[in-house]
Design brief:
Layout (H helix, E strand, L loop, with lengths): L5 E10 L5 E11 L4 E5 L6 H8 L7 E6 L2 E2 L6 H9 E5 L10 H11 L4 H14 L15 H13 L5 E5 L7 H18 L2 E5 L3 H5 L3 E6 L2 E4 L2
Parallel strand pairs: 3-8, 3-9, 6-7, 7-8
Antiparallel strand pairs: 1-2, 1-4, 4-5, 9-10
Helix pairs in contact: 3-4, 3-5, 5-6
Length: 225
């Protein structure tokens, strides 16, 4: 049996200040390869903090984060490698680099991971083709529609074939038809490659189409719709 793609074990996080804010309280979560999990939460409940910790962009006060079978320790250089090789990120707003084309935006993460330019361009072209963007590959973000930009951002997240995709409201800024297309492309990749996905969404219809739903409220993560 393969290792889980992502494990959060007893993860807690408190923001210190004039008034301490306990955001996560002993969160446990296991994502298996090929599984898509919806993360639902009221606004301000800490879903972005949870995603940042899962994505090794933040460090929990207590608990463990294990990605693709490897524990990410607090001061370990492996955190950077794991972020680059095993994790992909998609946000509500695409955050594409405006001076580069869609193709170049998908090539760059691969170059950072040491791949050759020819190999990186070929993979980028294949990914963009899989979401219907072949004819838009050489356009910069400003020349793309919102849905095209988000599909390009999705391809960028997949560039290094991550074990885990983390998505924060990835369709929240799109019209329903475009949101459905982006979501369908994501689910196809999950099914075909065995990648795991943790998707924060306020859309109950999208959440219902995933394998299961987890709910974050008052710092506690529970199963349930």
């Amino acid at each position: 049996m393969s290792d889980p793609a992502l494990v959060l074990d007893g993860v807690s996080r408190t923001y210190r200040g004039a008034r301490d804010i306990e955001v996560l309280r002993g969160v446990d979560l296991v994502l298996n390869p090929g599984e898509a999990v919806a993360l639902v939460a009221p606004s301000g409940a800490g879903k972005s903090t949870l995603l940042h910790i899962a994505g090794l962009l933040d460090v929990p006060d207590t608990g463990r984060v294990v990605v693709a079978g490897e524990e990410a320790r607090r001061a370990d250089r492996a955190r950077t490698r794991l972020r680059r090789q095993a994790l992909g990120f998609v946000y509500q707003f695409h955050h594409l680099l405006p001076e580069f084309t869609a193709l170049e935006n998908v090539v760059l993460p691969q170059l950072a991971d040491g791949k050759g330019r020819g190999e990186a361009r070929a993979r980028a072209a294949d990914l963009l083709a899989s979401v219907g963007l072949s004819e838009r590959a050489n356009h910069r973000p400003a020349a793309l529609s919102g849905g095209e930009q988000q599909r390009a951002a999705f391809c960028r997240a997949l560039a290094n074939a991550p074990a885990v995709l983390l998505a924060d409201e990835p369709t929240g800024n799109l019209d329903p038809a475009t949101a459905d297309r982006v979501f369908a492309a994501m689910m196809a990749v999950v099914r075909e490659t065995g990648m795991a996905a943790l998707v924060a969404t306020h859309n109950p219809e999208l959440a219902a189409r995933m394998d299961r739903v987890v709910r974050l409220e008052e710092g506690v993560l529970t199963d349930g719709r």
